Amino acid sequence: MMSRICPGSSKFNKLFEQISLRYSRNFSLWSMKKDPELESALSRNRRWIVNNQIKNIIIRCPDQVASVRWLQKKFKTLQLQGKALNWLKKYPCCYQVYLENDEYYCRLTKRMMFLVEEEEALKEMQEPVFADRLAKLLMMSRNHRLNVQKINELKRNLGFPDDYILRIVPKYPDMFRIVNYTGRRSSMEVELASWNPNLAFSAIEKIAQREGRAPCFSCKLPSSWVKSWERFEDFNSTPYISPYTSSNGLVEGSQELDKRTVGLVHELLSLTLWRRASIFKLDHFRSEFCLPDKLNVLLLKHPGIFYVSNRYQIYTVLLREAYNGSELIDKDPFVLVKEKFGELMQEGLHEYNRRHYLLNLEKRRKKGEVLLRTDKKMNQTGDSSEQDNQGGDLGGILDPEERRRFYNVLFERGGS
């Protein structure tokens, strides 16, 4: 028989606190007014993320060839529905699908492999940047060391290669060392070998030094947000506290500690490729970075600095100042390569839509259906949405405006 939990008991109080905490988090995360442009920035590379994961899966396969049947099983981990074959055929510029022994296989196209090689070459060139980025991460942590498994949670956000432990750490023995103080495999950590004062400058301090002023946060909110501006100016009026300074001596709940925490999250996001990260992933570093239990509540107190979204049911925090509308202002070299990947996807989808439209048109003509009105309307208006969905002309692929329009259609729709 199920035991009853009496009001006032310790079990009741604990259960009530858990329910209250969950409710307060859900309520507070939904309380931020949505910004359409930043929501668009979050959804723009959704399809790129999925295709990048498929690309990585294929690269790891023997001879870099994967059976479509096997990829279908991987679709669950990619949170995709539908048939893998249909998805792959939508991007003929990225994937080459062929039939062999009554089974479909997939490999990357030559153009796609060229981008893969370009990305690999960039990884080698960026190794010093990765080393500095990792060092800054360790310098902000409480004990100047971080668990490897936890770093792996953010490695893609930071642009680190999958093998950064083998590729980067051993090359910089004066900066890093691998330690394991408990002996458990899951306890392996990267520890800072020496403090580099040249790296102990945050993005905010660098901008202030360049502009010859005191370091402070910037606010990107409409002038109509009067109360938010007042709260921001009050918060910004106190001295900036660098995230590379120790939090020892700062009182929990004080404005000084909040100021350091906001600066620390700002710096963490500044180190990422897209200037954003999952709040859930940041929560994994609560003890290492001395983050509050209700990090989301703290972030929502500063809407001029951070933007919190629940796009794709993933709570994400984004740096407002890093974006001009929906466009990232300062783009990392890896972001530029990824944008080339996005253009290749767009071109393939354009080709797929055009071929699909022509096939459907031929079928309807064979059935004797009259399409004069539709064709006439297309010729007169040049409707962009009709061209986007059905492919337009072949020459449009080389037109910059045409490519930009299809790029928007591809990424603005989000999902799938």
From TrEMBL:
InterPro entries associated with the record: PORR_domain, PORR_fam
Protein name (record): PORR domain-containing protein
Pfam families for the chain: PORR (PF11955)
Region spans: Disordered: 373-398
Biased composition (Polar residues): 379-390
MF terms (GO), sorted A to Z: RNA binding
Coiled-coil zones: none
Positions of the PORR domain: 33-349
